[in-house]
Design a protein that fits this description.
binds heme C, 6 helices, about 180 residues, alpha+beta
Amino acid sequence: MFKKLAFIAATLAVLGTIAATNGTGSAARGKYLVNAVGCNDCHTPLKMGPKGPEPDMSRFLSGHPEQMGALKAVPPRGPWLWAGAATNTAFSGPWGISYAANLTPDQNTGLGIWTEDMFVKALRTGRHMGVSREIMPPMPWTAFRNMSDEDLKSIYAYLRSLKPVVNHVPDAQPASAIVE
Ligand code: HEC
């Protein structure tokens, strides 16, 4: 029993030291980059406004809206190969179906548990959390991987400063998993 407790305490201590912090980048520089590069284009859902579609700022960078749920694949037609949902947060193409991730620091549905290192690795290697499955199109990580460490860390710092939005984005569906 005591051994078990000691083990749990030791594990918690280790987790405590690697738990996500705001990192070492400049949140101000990160804000500038996020706005200039257009993370918002895909990670903030569009809603219909008086002048047409506009980003829904109450869901800023919180990804594909949970309420819309998972969508059906769109088969290619003629020269058209891929499709995007009206929100510009869900995409169907030869890769399968991808949903823009929740980039707010919510613990369960966003980047809450991501460390700075995971974030930099994900954008450099195109792998989920920097280590697992491949990140699908149209997430432009092949362009973003050319940013300096300092810039990627600054984007991370800015994202950590956002208001956490609870929004559970559906899991991506790779083409191999789609049965029509
Ligand atoms: C053209 C649309 C688009 C733009 C622009 C875009 N993203 Fe993404 N992003 C996506 C999609 C779609 C996914 C989900 C891909 C998947 O699930 O495989 C994603 C996923 C992610 C993920 C999660 C990766 C993971 O490991 O789960 C992060 C982090 C991310 N984007 C950060 C950013 C940042 C930061 C920017 C701006 C510098 C940005 N994205 C701009 C479409 C985009």
